[in-house]
Sequence to fold (675 residues):
Amino acid sequence: MSKKFYLTTPIYYVNARPHIGHAYTTIACDTIARRQRMLGADTFFLTGTDEHGQKIERAAEAAGKTPQEFADEVSAQFRTLWNRMGITYDDFIRTTEDRHKKRVHELFRQIRDNGHIYKGTYTGQYCVFDELYVDAVGPGAPCPECGRPTETVKEENYFFKLSAFADRLMQLYTEQPDFIRPETRRNEVMSFVRGGLRDLSISRSTFSWGIPVPDDPKHVIYVWLDALANYITAIGYGSSHKGAQEAFQKYWPADLHMIGKEIVRFHCVYWPAFLMAAELPLPKSIVAHGWLLFEESKMSKSRGNIVRAETILDVLGADALRYFLLREVVFGQDGSFSFDALVQRYNADLANGLGNLASRTLTMITRYFRGEVPYPSATVSQKAGDSAIAETARKVIAEYSSLVDQYQFSRALEVAWSLVAAVDKYIVENEPWALAENQSEESRSRLATILYTSAEALRIVTALVHPVIPDATAKIWAQLGLGDIRRFPLPDLKWGQLQLSTKLGNVEPVFPRADKTAIERMQKMEDQLRSGTTVTQAEPETQSPAAPVATHAAVAPAAKPAVVVPDGKITIDDFAKVELRVGQVKVAEKVKGADKLLRLEVDLGTEVRQVVAGIAESYAPELLVGRKVVIVANLAPRKLRGLESNGMIVAASPEGGKAVLASFLEDVPVGTRLK
Ligand SMILES: [Zn+2]
Fold:
């Protein structure tokens, strides 16, 4: 029985486009998810969007859209960006989806039936920016969290008996010191709870963009109760669907909720209290990271210094952004972003560091040993330097693993790169190119040892850092002749596994050096985006003070990507962006007024999707029910004849002939991913 690991990003509020701050959280989670998979854990990685609340209602109105249209647009931007970055999420939940709404009802009912909800009147101040009831006095009093003027609300509301949970919460923080990390956040939370907890209003009746309270639809459920519930609704809590129930049993409680430090209170006080009230197990750990600053100051719309991930993806690629953020920022603390620092790190650590080590080692093996890994000689040619590298590698494996498992990414990468530096020095000192000029047996043997040692160290670094820089390491792994790196079992990693005569693949550089124009190009793209924002409509502020964002503007033309792929080919990571899953048709019917379309409800194991497919001329609807099909699960939703289609069914479409659905000869469980 393999271990499971369930981790989540916060769900991102759809009042603003994604930017580098959102990317940072998501990259950290993706790195952890990839590592857990390589460790053999049955991993479930959830992300998504938070789409309700007064702030969205107002933002949509300002943009002349319905809240749903507004949410659809921004949610799709997040999903598109994650797909483009190759983020390996297993599910993307939206709080406006039916599955979520139904299951939030279940949660609300459960808490109410357990006696923790009552009706009362709330009079006081509300901060719309933070979607937070605050202890401030008088109309317009500043919000203690963000300093913005608060609004006075007087409403008959549903209240959650938060005050009754103070002791149990304190007990949780004391008995499980790892529940909140880092320590500074834990101390903040404990002092907040020690200061006394008041009951929490968990409904609003002055606006309607939310999930109605069960049996009292003039109230909508407080947006934070709605949003936090995503962590359980996405994996099947409250569902009557058997597959969903099993998923919930299997994955809950979460092993890790990764969050930004500005939402600690909601996650570490309210969320465990809601779960206690519903008598559900608590998540094992909540980890808060710091804010990403731009050149030492907060990114903000007024400063016009927001950076988007797309700019960096276009110029340097996803690996550069991933490596930079995890290496440069001490996880848990605030960190600083600048284009100069990014390019400097990229060149120093990736192009001249790992990239150069890979290319020189593999090129020499190709040139001197016809592309086959030579075997180190055990006798004549062993020197102290050789075993020192092996010793360093052993230490690096242990230290890196321990650091990365405590989410100390920066220190872990520093340790991994100490091996890169050691091997670089080893190569320079041993001058293999000079040895290659001498055909004596001793020289050949010595050369073999040096190149084996270098290649083996390269293999070890590559395996360790694959979760951080997946694209480049997959390429280096293939160049080492080792196949698919994602299948490599990390717990087995040790010195000496590289086999004699392993045939190398084609050796190509993975990190071309970035020249000065890289900074100029990125800067120019951001400037264009920013100048576009000042003249267009003002977009609402975002939820996180660290994460304000600019608006829709013309996207600058994409520069040449850093990784060159032959014309017409895609990389394995491009393919991995397409999420193909096995689904089972539950309902199939003709679409009125459309001869070619069928409306299908397809079970994906954790949810049932509506898909509209152009296969009515090939298949009678009744013949499809029960049939297993292949679905593109992460296709952005689209409307066909007024029906929303969430995904696409894969079929062969012969020229002039009828569509033929892709299917399986052997039985395969619903929800299985095709890869
Ligand atoms: Zn506020």
